[in-house]
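User: I want to check something. If I give you two sequences, will you return the structure for each one separately, not as a complex?

Assistant: Yes, each is folded on its own. Here is the first sequence with its structure:
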Amino acid sequence: MDIRFATEEDAPALLEIYGQYIDSPITFETSLPSLEDFRWRIREFSRDYPYLVSVQDGRITGYAYAHRAFTRDAYRFDAETTIYLSRDSQHSGTGPMLYAKLLDYLRRMNVVNAYALVTEPNRQSIYFHQRMGFRAFATFQDSGYKLDRWISVIWLVKVLNPREGRPAEIRSIRDVLAEEA
């Protein structure tokens, strides 16, 4: 399996994976976004943050990305993370490898807090995040309405860099990659 950065040309494959979850409580979107909207998301999120895809035998099997968690400047050290896998890639080891790479990039960008928002019931995702070092710290009870029911959201956090003292300023993914070159 290879992990690489997403491009706008990956949008159809990512949309196909995401479409597997649209009629479930796993995402709060109620209709499948357009292909152009997905291209915009890749372009927008990957400007400053990592947006990764896993590829096996020439086929995209999953994707993970991060973006700024909140808009106010004091929150600039926080990022929200997301991962989706094709259903046939679950339990294959793809998720941990993809997410570990994402978290490593965030750590090197000087992100302090990585957040994951997981809807209930999605115990598989909760356990996955806990295995990746996240801990649950809040539940937004009945915060979304979809599929004719109220759905709660569990917030999880993983501390990637020390919280003591003044943190190092956030770097964009472009700065991290330029350093590697």
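And separately, the second sequence with its own structure:
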Amino acid sequence: MLLTADIGNTSITLGLFDEEALVEEYRLASDKDLSLEEYEVLLKTLFKDFKIDGCIIGSVVEELTNKFKRAVDNIFKINSILLSTKINTGIKISLKKPEEAGADRIANMAGAYVLYKRPAIVIDFGTATSFDIINSYGEFIGGVIAPGINLQLKALNKFTSKLPKVDIAPSSAAIGDNTTDAILSGVIRGIACMVDGLVEQCEKELGTKATIIATGGYSGLIATYMKRPFDFINPTLTLEGLRHLYLINAKTPTSVA
């Protein structure tokens, strides 16, 4: 079975594939303070009933990348693949500095390339809200990065003296008649308006309509307030992209020990 690991700033999402089927999904905190041995125990406990034959890791947290790879390799006795621009990404990365492309963005583009009609815009609602664009020729040409929902809510609380900590919830009205509802309107509806506006501007630059794919835990919430609906909501797009990248790299894996 194939283990895919998406290491983000907030959480580590693990997907277990049996051929094309995603059979298990787990989410761990991205805890930089856990030791190699503690990650080994976690992996051994989670996957004690499965035989892991291969693994690909996409990480945007440098402090965890090699530690997690060593834990995976030690427990499952394999040589896992680290996603970077040094391996076969399956797509042409037409950025000025391709090495700056995060592993999650590459995985999303790889997933969009094989699953959806192009051109496509993938919007990932994570710690950051990121837009990644693949053109009609299958090239990853760039994107947009903005603060995510949780980041905005935390910033309002941390950097002001009176605004309270607010949990993510639906926004009942655009005009909030209390502080909490006003914040939810600004953040939740504000992100929806941002998505609508930026999709329109990106399509203008592309010169054509694009397939709009949303991923990340808050896709459904944001979609409620958008003028234009997403064409697809795929919460496992990153994991599916990682699976595809493993398949095209498994014969000659390139990784960092």
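Because they were folded independently, the notes below concern the second chain alone. Residues 253-257 have pLDDT under 50 and may be disordered. The first helix runs from residue 36 to 46.
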